[in-house]
């Protein structure tokens, strides 16, 4: 492999993608790099020798190539790219998934290299503005508006997405295909009283993609449809990578206390509950949540009181990190 990370035969390159999550004003945010057409094309030309066919889609996750002669590990390469593109240092990070499907970079069809990307999930508390204007925190529901159930069933589901999926089901070529589409839609989107599973973020996005109901799907088809607004599209398959991260985090907060990586050193129980609700996209029963936190011994009182605007003073708590050595199942969600 050459020093630039591209094999001499030009067939495979390795990329590194970061989904960096923070909580800002009790909302789940993801750090996005806003590219111009020139910088987006230039960044991808580091990975391949061809321009992007859809370089007008400028919102992307922090990403860059793995340089085997420069980066000691994949993770060190990721941290280097994140700091260069966002001026942020990341603390907690875990490998998310390896994305290597054929055709995920559309230039592959024109003879470009296969792009294999290693995705990472990072949780941070430092959300201060930086000198890099192109690095912006965006609400992750900007990309998946149908995933936020905190107030009620998202209007977009009932007015647009579910009718479009029912139409897609009815256009099936065979009864078997129709049944398969119907069953998958029930499982992923809670159709016809099927329970909604908040962890199936990726599966929902992929079903919309298969049904040609999101903008990214239309990059690969001549069957252009009027799709309206179904979340903000991202460069290449970065929205798929983001969906994978959201689903992973929603699942993980149920059995590991990773939510505390997003919390300040001290917090109230109401603040903790609102953060868990923001991540899961659903409301929690206040008393049940507090009983669960108390039962698992995840927090301890600091002895200090916080004066909350418009409400009664509330006790402050801190995360008991020693519980990581005491138990295995330490989630904060209980349905």
Automatic annotation (TrEMBL):
UniProt-listed InterPro entries: NMN_biosyn, NUDIX_hydrolase-like_dom_sf, WH-like_DNA-bd_sf, WH_DNA-bd_sf, WHD_NrtR
Range of residues in the leader sequence: none
Domain NrtR DNA-binding winged helix, first and last residues per copy: 259-319
Protein known as: NrtR DNA-binding winged helix domain-containing protein
Source species of the chain: Kiloniella antarctica
Organism taxonomic ancestry: Bacteria, Pseudomonadati, Pseudomonadota, Alphaproteobacteria, Rhodospirillales
């Amino acid at each position: 492999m050459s020093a630039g990370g591209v094999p001499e035969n030009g067939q495979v390159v390795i990329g590194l993608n970061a989904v960096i999550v923070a909580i800002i004003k009790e909302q789940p945010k993801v750090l996005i790099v806003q590219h111009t057409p020139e910088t987006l094309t230039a960044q991808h030309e580091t990975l391949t020798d061809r321009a992007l066919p859809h370089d007008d889609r400028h919102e992307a996750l922090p990403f860059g190539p793995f340089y085997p002669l420069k980066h000691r590990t994949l993770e060190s390469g990721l941290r280097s790219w994140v700091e260069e593109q966002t001026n942020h240092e990341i603390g907690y990070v875990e490998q998310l998934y390896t994305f290597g499907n054929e055709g995920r970079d559309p230039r592959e069809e024109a003879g470009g290299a296969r792009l294999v990307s290693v995705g990472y999930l990072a949780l941070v508390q430092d959300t201060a503005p930086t000198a890099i204007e192109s690095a912006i925190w965006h609400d992750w529901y900007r990309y998946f508006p149908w995933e936020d159930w905190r107030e009620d069933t998202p209007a977009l589901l009932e007015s647009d997405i579910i009718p479009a999926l029912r139409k897609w089901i009815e256009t099936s070529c065979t009864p078997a295909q129709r049944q398969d589409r119907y069953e998958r839609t029930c499982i992923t989107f809670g159709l016809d009283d099927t329970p909604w599973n908040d962890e199936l973020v990726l599966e929902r996005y992929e079903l919309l993609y298969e049904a040609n109901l999101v903008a990214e799907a239309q990059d690969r088809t001549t069957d252009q449809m009027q799709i309206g607004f179904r979340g903000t599209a991202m460069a290449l398959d970065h929205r798929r990578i983001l969906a994978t991260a959201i689903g992973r985090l929603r699942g993980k907060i149920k059995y590991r206390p990773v939510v505390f990586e997003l919390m300040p050193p001290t917090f109230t129980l109401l603040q903790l509950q609102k953060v868990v609700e923001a991540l899961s996209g659903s409301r929690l029963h206040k008393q049940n949540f507090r009983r669960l936190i108390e039962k698992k011994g995840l927090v301890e009182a600091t002895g200090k009181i916080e004066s909350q605007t418009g409400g009664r003073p509330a006790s402050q708590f801190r995360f008991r990190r020693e519980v990581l050595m005491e138990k295995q199942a330490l989630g904060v969600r209980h349905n």
